[in-house]
Amino acid sequence: MEERQFRLNEYIYSSLISGLFKEGKSEDAMNLWKEMIKKGCKPNSVVYSALIDGLCRVGKPDEAEEVLFEMMNKGCIPNAFTYSSLMKGFFDSGKSDKAIQIWKEMAKNNCICNACNFLLIVETLGCKPYGGCEWYQTDILESSKQ
Fold first, then answer.
1. For residue 20, which of 14, 25, 101, 102 is within the disulfide window of CB 3.0 to 4.6 Å?
2. The whole model's pTM is what?
3. In the CATH hierarchy, which fold is given to the domain comprising 2-145?
């Protein structure tokens, strides 16, 4: 694209990174991320979220969490999608407690959860509306009120 004088910005990079991960080309996605940084394109929350989601899709939620910390240290604010991707990554890797910890961090950071966040937790934990995982329900609902 650059040969034709197209300037790649953070939104184009985020789409490309996301697409590469979805096509199973995680190494290419990571190389593109490194290229973006090397070329001086400053990542925003959209690019960070695409990278976090992609890493979780390929079973690397711990690496994705490191990206979340980097994101926050650089002043980018994660949104509900960012947190949902990370929670799903931890749930899928069998680390439910870590996913719940991310949920609590989301509430602590004043990120407004949405129906997708609640649904992810309810479906993943196999909660029934009136029983099945009461201790998680109480804990989760209380943390989301903070």
1. 25
2. 0.78
3. 1.25.40
Q: Label residue 120 exposed, middle or buried (CB < 10 Å: 0-12, 13-18, 19+).
A: buried
| Host H or E run for residue 127 | none
Cβ-defined contacts of 15-21 (< 8 Å, 24+): 15/50, 17/47, 17/50, 17/51, 17/54, 18/50, 18/53, 18/54, 20/54, 21/50, 21/53, 21/54, 21/55, 21/57, 21/58
Find the length of the chain: 146
pLDDT tens digits, one per residue of 40-94 = 999 999 999 999 999 999 999 999 999 999 999 999 999 989 999 999 999 999 9
The backbone region for 22, taken as left when phi is positive above 0, alpha when psi lies in -120 to 50, beta otherwise, is alpha
Quick one: 73 exposed, middle or buried, by C-beta within 10 A (0-12, 13-18, 19+)? exposed
